[in-house]
Amino acid sequence: MKVVVIGGGIAGLSTCKHLRKLDKNVEIILVEPKEYLEVHWCGVRALFDGNIAQRSTFSINKWAISKSVVHVQDWVTQLTDTEVLLGDGQYIEFNLCVVCTGSVTPFAGFAKGPPNPNGRGQGRLRHRLGQMQHWGRRLLDSGSVAIIGGGLIGIEMAGDLAFYSKKQGRPLQIALIHNEEFLVPEFTPSAGDMALEKLTEMGVEVILDEEAIEQEDGNVRLSKSGDYLQVNEVIWATGIRPCNHFMNRAHLTQDGWIKVDEYFQVEGAEGRLFAMGDCCDLLPNTGNQAMEASYILAKNLKRTLDAIERREEQHVVLKKAQVSTEIYVATIGKTDGVAMTPVMATQFGLPWMKNSTMFLWKVKKQIGLHKANKLGG
Description:
By secondary structure, this protein is of the alpha/beta class. About 30% of the residues lie in helices and about 20% in strands. The chain has ten helices and 22 strands. The strands form seven sheets. A five-stranded parallel sheet has the order 5-2-1-9-19. A four-stranded parallel sheet has the order 13-12-11-17. A three-stranded antiparallel sheet has the order 6-7-8, with no helix packed on it. A hairpin with a 3-residue loop joins strand 6 and strand 7 (about 85). The two termini are about 35 Å apart.
């Protein structure tokens, strides 16, 4: 029996790990063009802190060997209910396939999504570390930055830019434009106000309830007031979009997300395709949700494989997805932040823990990762 997992992010690696524990004999093939995993919630801090950049990237190759997973370093150009077509023209047939391709962001510095197949060195860790350093230096040397979008990414970017530019003795002029009345959609208004106060104290100009329009000259115009912001860099932090270009359009929503049922099965795929993570909209888009839900997905894969072997696919009983406790933690600079829990918003505890550890210990424990610092370029 063979399972193909497309996407080597947290969702994909977590699923492989749990499936291997449940089935020692199944052949697991991970298709991921990059040689490394990058912990995405460290993405902002890694631009300005080389130590975090090193610590938040891990070798997929070493991990795959330890878990008896075959890592195919390529990208998928087409997916059917029975096989995947790779960029090099080869086909891989499977019994089941799991799509965990994640999402992409407007800001190029995060490099989310698959690497450009024509880009020299892309997919290599050395290239990515150099890219982080380049973007961090470019932003800190810019003099002025406008950040469009006051979600979690936007406020973390504003806070880190303010902190690290002040640390180097050249504070930036930073404007954060958000189209809602308070920051971060996942926050309550009081938590958003807490973040607003902290950013304002750091010298960030926060503009709420405004739409930003980037002009041809690179500057930004505010749609309601008509004011222009003259800045040297514009960062769009206005959300994510799915990375599902290889999927049959029949399996996608109008916005491009994979349509899945409550068992992670792709709708209309005859029970052969599954999906989890940022590529579909079943669960909130957080790494913690993916790690917690991957065990349920792996159990459903195992039950389906067993049913295929018995030729009883119509009678397989699957486990429903469960949303774990939603907790959102945003750092605001290297020493501050705000956390939103189901009970309360707080500036203590969790923000300090994220700034201190970036929660990397949890990734290592959940997935069993190995450091990738010494990979070749």
